[in-house]
């Protein structure tokens, strides 16, 4: 059985990684070949995950010896298997989408496909990596392949900038991981000295509380935080997700950033006694990321940037769950730990489904209209009904509204927070609750804006008016993902055993508590059905033929000028919220000055820069570069100066030796 | 065998210098490289290196074998690339070029196999002189300036190294040793050597060989020499000459270690290593000239080597491994940068952009080389940089490891900024395009080098691993 | 006694070098220094070894004749101003030279000689000469004067080498002669190229490559 | 948990019937009280029942700018409110459906209703409805945490994670936590007024579209969709009202008395709302967040009072 699991996993990795190869040699149909291979790989991966989650036990495989070190190691345990599910599903959906979205006509389509498959292959290896070198190999492979994906449209300077910021951030994070793994290895480190210290082995009790343990945790947090997009390390994410082709954004946001979470999850799983402050820090960071993520999302008018900020928000939600679970694990309350971890894990899966869906939907919109600017869209619900419906499902789910999947995971995290009231310092619970509630309301506001402005009302530009529904290849993956969102929301019990097993592995409880029993997931299913039935019934009743007349314009309170540009815009929709959050968001506005009695045409512009990237990182680096530029004279071309260096070095070293 | 490895390339050099036919000379390069490599591998496989007589002047000990293996492989790759390059430069006579090129291999073999400090020094000196004409290949004002600086700075360095060698000899004299002062004997009798002289000698050797190696702030000739010579020469200098100097330094380091001065020597290496990385980082920021960028990267990697030795223990193994990793990847970088230059007739931003469009293979190779050299898996430098960092964090101190990683991050940011601009984007429309196109001849050697770098990142033949381990023991003073 | 006298003279030539304003004078001083050095082994009483005699002869020949000959050829062809054009003036050079000598003495104090060795002045003198060579290299602008500086620097190394020459003749001789011969020879070639390319030996022209 | 105990059937039946039939009475009551206080006779108490009956027969006019979402919105609102009504206890007895964490579902069902209303409003493409929608979502950002902090305080007091448990505070805990409870209720009343679009947050009777919130969102609705929207709104009035009166109701142990107490309390609440509407003016729109922040702070303070 375990052999089969490993074989399936390797199959999955190879099929996906090599999916772009046939396309290099085929004149046409490379995309389709890639999609088939990715699909086959996804099935293999799902099968492997299913076997492990059904209780087949962790499957392990020793890889070849890495140079001068211990052997590489793959191990598919329930946690890895749980992460394998989105890793298998989403890229396959994206590959199918790519057939329609990024056809042979695009410059570099073949490279993109090749790297897309490669990224997926690395992702598959990553979820099963159980050794620092294997992990880092897959990690950087994924990151670098992802960089090339982001750079797909590198003729655009904005894309180049986005790609570079991404690469810089991911590599900085990786170097933090170097340090963290380095500290974790060896005697006194979290992973101990076995196998060179690079094998993921459970930490001995007490190690996490040492200062070295603390430093290790913080370095892991920063390293994984860069990838996951935890505020304030999120800054690479909006430009990169905005610039990448949409099916790439979809896996970037859906699974790649989740690998940061995977790293944190692995760490928490390996530490039997995490200190309380680990959990508390995670909760605080979660609340921060969640609130700021959604607040900045609200202020965006680029569809994909907006979705990217929502990824930061959802990472925040996941961290809240992870933090609460860690608090539970630290304080010895298995129920709390289980609920928090289960919520976090389920939200990882859910977010990958609905955010993948939303990015594909955004891709369809971009494909059909050529614009990502919300203010130039509108009315697409008429011309692209399928995309609109799918996008609505995604929006519904990401707002955490019942009966879709987003609700289930948020519900688990809420429950954990409520449970925490009894066990923990209630401040953490209250913080989590207030943050979750506010995030939920802000997300709903934001997606009301997005759906309303993009798909409803009427087209605000000629491009939007000319839009047509996208091809089947693009619709099908959206449909699949939307169905998954609905299915998981309506019947969370289906995944409950798997979830419980993964959460138990994370919590370190030997007996997987019956999550379905604790969390009453079945009631959610039971209520979802009447809710949906009732809604459909009432809808049918209200739209009964003959009960209405159509073809009239909207009643606009007497203003008959039928101008689509007079519709409420995304900016105006968000204006009051952005205005009340302006001390956080710090928008840059250019308001027109109206002086004369009959002013001419005036423009109004507003832009909310990313606080970290545009106000700290970039100016900071610019300043540093200019500061270092002053030192250029040291290499000023004069041989005398150079010889002087040698003399000075010699004299200094001699004096140091004598001293 | 030892004599063959040294004499064969030198004979080839003489032949190349004497023989009139340019075509013959060009063909001689890959043939010599391949034969040398084959002979070396044969010698290693036959196990002739295991202490071929303690009292011999020449021989393949683990350290020398490993260094020579790296040099020979790199030479082979460069020699396979050189004919294609020379074909692109029909206007330049290649007599001196080929002769110097071949002579370098012979002298490097001498250096790697020499068991005597004086002999090592002689080999280093002659290597410097043999490579000077290579830097001057372009015969213009810029290349003459570079050559002059290389020669003066290199000569001063080598003079200091000589003084250091003499100090070492004096230390031995005070310890009662007599000629011939083979390294093995110096190490065996390490405890009796005069400590003050030994220390002073090591400082001089560090400054002297460090100048040849390019440790900051002694590296100042590097950007000019690498920037103005052909790409293939940059590769040979950055991977070959530096390896020679590093080997020479390690020999003396080993004596220090055997004499019980390990802590002192380590501190110096650590400090110089970090300083080199810092200097490189500062000058890579907004570096518009890609060749100078690579030169500073070379300074950085010399710093990493020194740092690894300074950290000691496990890190020494990986510093030695890094020797190969750096040489291979630097080869890819310099030669692909050379190809890109050739296509754009410039090596500076903002003229060189969109390399993946104009020279797709070289552009991608350059980019991959950048990733590799900055420590991205699965390339070999990842293994060494990660392990050196991990070892440094554990010992000597957290701060050394932290400084190492912070500098690596800074260097990545600085280097990547330029590389991304060079590789991606659109080639400038208003610049003339030279007739250069990527061909198999100008890219295949690079692909091989990169392939080797990947292979080393994933797998190392066990005998080679054992060789590196025993070389590391040797460096740490346990023969 | 004689050795000490010679060494004192050598150190004096160092100072002289620091204040010499003419290229020709500088070369002459270097020649004097070279010849003094060449004769030193005889003063040390090593004249009984034939190989050392050979070395003395070759050193005097190279340093006393070959190198100045090469230099003079170069200067004659050039017709450039004859001043050495120092950076920072002669006083500065002299002061630095003095400081260098002081440093050398300090350093030498930390390096114990073999018990009973009479060569007490060798180490400070050799280091002082080395540092003087360095200073000349750094603070002179002409390519040729830089080579002179290099020559002085080499002299410093040679001076130290003489301490070992009895026991380890091969190391010293091979090293020093190779260094001098080949180094100066190649430098001469490059100086020729420089003058051809720039019509001058002023190294200020050679500062085009920079960051 | 939904024990299918036979004994609970009548209870559940009354609950469901109350939820289905009672809501339209509440706006009638409020309006009647308002009229009486103002010295007018006012519309009949059952006016909304008449309106609903009439609207159900009338033909709807649907803008050509809309999609299916326009019609689905009111249906979803009504459905969500109906399901939510199953979760909240009407007075003494546990709700028909109760389980650990049901308050989260409860709150999110109203979130769903809001989302559906807003989308239906935006579907028309009208600026006015966009304006109303923007206001609705803005205010909910403050209302939601207030609701949840109230839940947290009650959960802490009652030790229960279910609405039925946390609203059924026993005597002792009621006394122990009087102060916090009052603060929670004060906070929830602001939420109640905001969620139900009452003065001082919104004026249901205003005639200036520019200042409306809820009314302007259903501006384009007519016929059956409007009926559903109105019905859903009144249901919200009942269900959220039950949340507020719940902790205050006496537990007599006799079902009929308890039901009577519940109906009486709801009537009182409606009257109270009516009175408030008479004696206060509507807040300026940019002052509304301050009103809600006050509510949020009240619940937060309640919680920290419990800790002290």
Secondary-structure topology with pairs:
The complex is a heterotetramer of chains A (659), B (479), C (211) and D (308).
Chain A: H1 2-17, H2 21-25, H3 30-56, E1 59-65, E2 71-76, H4 78-101, H5 109-128, H6 132-150, H7 157-184, H8 211-228, H9 237-243, H10 246-256, H11 258-270, H12 276-298, H13 303-331, H14 334-369, H15 380-383, H16 385-398, H17 405-423, H18 426-455, H19 462-466, H20 472-490, H21 496-507, H22 515-519, H23 521-542, E3 548-552, H24 570-580, H25 582-585, E4 588-590, E5 605-607, H26 611-629, H27 639-658
Antiparallel strand pairs in A: 1-2, 4-5
Helix pairs in contact in A: 1-3, 1-5, 3-4, 3-5, 3-21, 4-5, 4-10, 4-14, 4-20, 4-21, 5-6, 6-7, 6-10, 7-8, 7-9, 8-11, 9-10, 9-13, 10-14, 11-13, 12-13, 12-18, 13-14, 13-17, 13-18, 14-16, 14-17, 14-20, 14-21, 16-18, 16-20, 17-18, 17-20
Chain C: H1 2-19, H2 23-43, H3 50-78, H4 89-109, H5 122-139, H6 143-164, H7 169-198
Chain D: H1 9-21, H2 25-38, H3 47-57, E1 60-63, H4 68-85, H5 102-122, H6 127-158, H7 163-167, H8 171-176, H9 178-195, H10 214-217, H11 223-245, H12 255-279, H13 288-307
Helix pairs in contact in D: 2-12, 3-11, 4-5, 4-11, 5-6, 6-9, 6-13, 9-11, 9-13, 11-12
**Intertermini distance of chain A:** 68 Å
- Rg from Cα of chain D: 19 Å
Query: How many E-type strands of chain D?
Result: 1
> What does the overall shape of chain A look like?
globular
| Helical stretch tally of chain D | 13
Q: What would the principal axes of the Cα set say about the shape of chain D?
A: globular
Most residues in contact, chain pair and counts: A-D, 85 and 81 residues
State the low-pLDDT regions of chain A, or none: none
Q: Could you report the average pLDDT of chain A, rounded to the nearest whole number?
A: 90
Secondary-structure-based class of chain D equals mainly alpha
User: What is the number of helical segments of chain A per DSSP (H or I, 4+ residues)?
Assistant: 27
Q: In which range does the helix fraction of chain D lie?
A: 55-70%
Instruction: Give start-end ranges of low-pLDDT stretches of chain D.
Output: none
Strand content of chain A: under 5%
Round the Cα radius of gyration of chain A to an integer and report it. 26 Å
Strand order of the largest sheet of chain A: 1-2
Order of helices and strands of chain D: HHHEHHHHHHHHHH
Let me know the largest β-sheet of chain D.
none
For the biggest sheet of chain A, the summary is:
2 strands, antiparallel
């Amino acid at each position: 059985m375990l052999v089969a699991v490993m074989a399936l996993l390797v199959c999955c990795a190879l099929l996906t990684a090599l999916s772009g190869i046939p396309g290099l040699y085929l004149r046409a149909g490379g995309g389709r070949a890639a999609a088939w291979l990715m699909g086959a790989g996804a099935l293999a991966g799902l099968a492997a995950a299913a076997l492990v989650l059904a209780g087949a036990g962790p499957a392990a495989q020793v890889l070849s010896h890495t140079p001068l070190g211990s052997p590489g190691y793959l191990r598919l345990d329930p946690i890895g298997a749980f992460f394998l599910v989105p890793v298998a599903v989403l890229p396959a959906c994206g590959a199918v989408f790519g057939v329609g979205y990024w056809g042979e006509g695009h410059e570099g389509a073949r490279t993109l496909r090749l790297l897309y498959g490669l990224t997926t292959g690395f992702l598959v290896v990553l979820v099963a990596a159980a050794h620092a070198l294997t992990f880092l190999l897959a990690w950087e492979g994924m990151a670098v392949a992802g960089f090339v994906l982001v750079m797909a449209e590198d003729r655009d300077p904005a894309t180049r900038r986005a790609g570079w910021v991404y690469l810089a951030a991911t590599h900085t994070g990786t170097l933090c991981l170097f340090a963290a793994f380095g500290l974790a290895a060896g005697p006194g480190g979290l992973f101990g000295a076995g196998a060179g210290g690079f094998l993921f082995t459970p930490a001995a009790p007490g190690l996490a509380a040492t200062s070295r343990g603390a430093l290790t945790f913080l370095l892991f947090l920063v390293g994984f935080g860069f990838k996951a997009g935890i505020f304030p390390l999120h800054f690479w994410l909006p430009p990169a997700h905005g610039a990448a082709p949409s099916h790439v954004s979809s896996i970037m946001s859906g699974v790649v950033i989740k690998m940061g979470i995977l790293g944190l999850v692995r760490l928490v799983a390996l530490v039997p006694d995490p200190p309380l402050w680990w959990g508390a820090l995670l909760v605080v960071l979660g609340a921060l990321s969640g609130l700021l993520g959604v607040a900045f999302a609200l202020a965006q008018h680029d569809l994909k940037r907006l979705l990217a900020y929502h990824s930061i928000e959802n990472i925040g939600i996941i961290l809240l769950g992870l933090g609460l679970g860690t608090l539970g694990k630290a304080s010895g309350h298995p129920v709390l730990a289980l609920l928090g971890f289960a919520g976090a894990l389920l939200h990882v899966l859910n977010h990958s489904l609905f955010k993948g869906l939303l990015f594909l939907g955004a891709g369809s919109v971009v494909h059909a209209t050529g614009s990502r600017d919300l203010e130039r869209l509108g009315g697409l619900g008429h011309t692209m009904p399928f995309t609109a419906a799918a996008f609505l499902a995604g929006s519904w789910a990401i707002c955490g509204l019942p009966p879709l999947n987003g609700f289930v995971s948020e519900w688990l995290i809420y429950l954990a927070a409520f449970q925490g009231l009894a066990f923990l310092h209630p401040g953490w619970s209250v913080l989590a609750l207030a943050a979750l509630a506010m995030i939920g309301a802000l997300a709903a506001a934001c997606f009301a804006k997005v759906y309303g402005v993009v798909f409803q009302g009427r087209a605000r530009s000629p491009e939007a008016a000319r839009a047509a529904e996208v091809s089947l290849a693009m619709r099908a993956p959206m449909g699949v993902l939307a169905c998954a969102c609905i299915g998981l929301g309506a019947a969370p019990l289906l995944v409950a055993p798997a979830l419980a097993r993964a959460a138990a592995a994370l919590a370190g409880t030997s007996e997987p508590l019956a999550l379905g029993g604790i969390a009453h997931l079945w009631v959610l299913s039971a209520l979802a059905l009447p809710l949906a039935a009732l809604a459909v019934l009432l809808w049918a009743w209200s739209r009964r033929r003959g009960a209405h007349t159509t073809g009239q314009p909207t009643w606009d309170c007497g203003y008959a000028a039928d101008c689509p540009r007079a519709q409420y815009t995304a900016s105006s929709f968000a204006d009051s919220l952005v205005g009340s959050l302006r001390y956080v968001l710090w928008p840059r506005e250019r308001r027109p000055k109206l002086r004369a009695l009959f002013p001419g045409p005036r423009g109004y512009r507003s832009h909310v820069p990313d606080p970290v990237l545009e106000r700290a990182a970039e100016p900071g680096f610019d300043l540093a570069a200019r500061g270092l530029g002053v030192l250029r004279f040291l290499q000023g071309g004069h041989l005398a100066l150079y010889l002087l260096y040698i003399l000075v070095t010699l004299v200094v070293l001699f004096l140091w030796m004598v001293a | 065998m030892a004599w063959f490895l040294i004499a064969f390339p030198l004979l080839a050099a003489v032949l190349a210098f004497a023989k009139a036919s340019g075509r013959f000379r060009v063909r001689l390069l890959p043939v010599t490289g391949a034969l040398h490599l084959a002979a070396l591998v044969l010698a290693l496989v036959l196990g002739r290196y295991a202490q071929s007589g303690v009292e011999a002047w020449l021989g393949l000990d683990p350290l020398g074998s490993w260094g020579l293996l790296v040099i020979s492989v790199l030479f082979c790759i460069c020699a396979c690339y050189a004919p294609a390059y020379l074909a692109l430069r029909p206007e330049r006579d290649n007599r001196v070029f080929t002769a110097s090129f071949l002579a370098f291999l012979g002298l490097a073999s001498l250096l790697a196999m020499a068991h005597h400090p004086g002999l090592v020094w002689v080999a280093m000196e002659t290597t410097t002189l043999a490579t000077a004409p290579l830097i001057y290949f372009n015969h213009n004002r810029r290349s003459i300036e570079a050559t002059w600086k290389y020669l003066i700075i290199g000569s001063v360095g080598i003079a200091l190294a000589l003084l250091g060698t003499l100090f070492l000899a004096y230390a031995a004299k005070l310890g009662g040793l007599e000629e011939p002062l083979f390294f093995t004997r110096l190490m065996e009798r390490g405890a009796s050597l005069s400590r003050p002289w030994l220390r002073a000698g090591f400082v001089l050797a560090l400054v002297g060989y460090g100048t040849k190696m390019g440790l900051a702030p002694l590296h100042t000739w590097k950007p000019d020499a690498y920037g103005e010579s052909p790409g293939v020469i940059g590769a040979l200098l950055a991977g070959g000459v530096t390896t020679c100097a590093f080997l020479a330094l390690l020999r003396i380091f080993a004596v220090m270690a055997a004499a019980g001065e390990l802590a002192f020597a380590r501190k110096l290496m650590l400090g110089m290593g970090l300083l080199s990385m810092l200097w490189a980082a500062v000058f890579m920021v907004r570096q518009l000239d890609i060749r100078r960028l690579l030169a500073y990267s070379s300074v950085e990697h010399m710093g990493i080597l020194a740092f690894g030795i300074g950290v000691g223990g496990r890190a020494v193994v990986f510093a030695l491994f890094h020797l190969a990793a750096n040489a291979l990847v630097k080869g890819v970088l310099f030669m692909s940068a050379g190809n890109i230059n050739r296509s754009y007739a410039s090596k500076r931003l903002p003229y060189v952009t969109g390399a993946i469009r104009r020279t797709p293979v070289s552009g991608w190779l350059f980019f991959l080389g950048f990733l590799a050299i900055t420590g991205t898996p699965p390339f070999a430098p990842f293994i060494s940089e990660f392990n050196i960092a991990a070892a440094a964090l554990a010992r000597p101190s957290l701060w050394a490891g932290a400084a190492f990683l912070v500098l690596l991050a800074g260097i990545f940011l600085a280097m990547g900024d330029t590389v991304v601009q060079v590789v991606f984007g659109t080639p400038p429309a208003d610049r003339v395009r030279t007739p250069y196109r990527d061909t198999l001849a100008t890219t295949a050697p690079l692909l091989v080098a990169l392939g080797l770098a990947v292979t080393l990142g994933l797998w190392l033949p066990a005998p080679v691993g054992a060789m590196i381990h025993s070389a590391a023991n040797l460096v740490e003073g346990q023969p | 006694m004689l050795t000490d006298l010679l060494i004192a003279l050598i150190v004096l030539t160092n100072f002289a070098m620091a204040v010499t304003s003419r290229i020709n004078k500088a070369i002459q001083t270097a020649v004097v220094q070279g010849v003094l050095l060449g004769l030193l082994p005889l003063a040390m009483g090593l004249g009984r070894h034939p190989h050392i005699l050979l070395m003395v002869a070759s050193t005097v020949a190279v340093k006393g004749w070959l190198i100045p000959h090469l230099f003079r050829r170069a200067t004659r062809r050039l017709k450039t101003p004859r001043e050495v054009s120092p950076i920072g003036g002669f006083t500065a050079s002299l002061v630095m030279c003095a400081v260098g000598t002081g440093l050398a003495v300090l350093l030498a104090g930390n390096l114990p000689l073999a018990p009973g060795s009479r060569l007490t002045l060798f180490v400070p003198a050799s280091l002082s000469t080395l540092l003087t060579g360095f200073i000349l290299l750094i603070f002179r602008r002409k390519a040729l004067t830089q080579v002179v500086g290099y020559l002085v620097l080499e002299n410093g190394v040679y001076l130290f080498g003489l301490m070992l020459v009895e026991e380890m003749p091969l190391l010293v001789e091979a090293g020093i002669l190779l260094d001098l011969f080949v180094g100066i020879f190649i430098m001469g070639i490059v100086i020729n190229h420089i003058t051809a390319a720039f019509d001058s030996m002023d190294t200020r022209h050679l500062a085009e490559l920079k960051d | 948990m939904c024990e299918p105990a036979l004994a609970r059937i009548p209870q559940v039946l009354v609950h469901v019937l109350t939820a289905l039939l009672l809501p339209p009475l509440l706006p009638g009551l409020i309006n009647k009280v308002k009229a009486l206080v103002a010295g007018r006779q006012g519309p009949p108490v059952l006016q909304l029942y008449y309106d609903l009956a009439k609207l159900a027969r009338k033909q709807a006019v649907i803008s050509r700018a809309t999609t299916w979402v326009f019609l689905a919105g009111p249906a979803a609102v009504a459905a969500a409110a109906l399901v939510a009504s199953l979760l909240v206890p009407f007075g003494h007895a546990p709700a028909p459906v109760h389980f650990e964490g049901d308050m989260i579902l409860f709150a999110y069902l109203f979130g769903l209703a809001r989302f559906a209303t807003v989308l239906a409003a935006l579907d028309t493409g009208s600026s006015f409805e966009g304006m109303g929608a923007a206001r609705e979502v803005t205010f909910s950002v403050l209302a939601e945490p207030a609701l949840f902090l109230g839940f947290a305080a009650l959960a802490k007091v009652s030790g229960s994670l279910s609405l039925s448990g946390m609203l059924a505070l026993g005597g002792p805990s009621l006394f122990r936590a009087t102060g916090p409870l009052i603060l929670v209720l004060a906070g929830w009343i602001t939420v109640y007024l905001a969620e139900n679009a009452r003065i001082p947050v919104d004026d249901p009777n205003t005639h200036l579209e520019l200042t409306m919130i809820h009314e302007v969102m259903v501006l384009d609705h007519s016929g059956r969709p409007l009926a559903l929207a109105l019905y859903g709104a009144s249901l919200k009035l009942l269900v959220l009202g039950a949340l507020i009166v719940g902790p205050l109701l006496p537990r007599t142990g006799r079902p009929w008395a308890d039901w009577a107490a519940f109906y009486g309390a709801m009537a009182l609440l409606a009257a109270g709302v009516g009175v408030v509407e008479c004696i206060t003016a509507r807040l300026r729109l940019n002052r509304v967040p301050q009103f809600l922040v006050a509510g949020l702070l009240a619940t937060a303070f309640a919680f920290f009072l419990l800790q002290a």
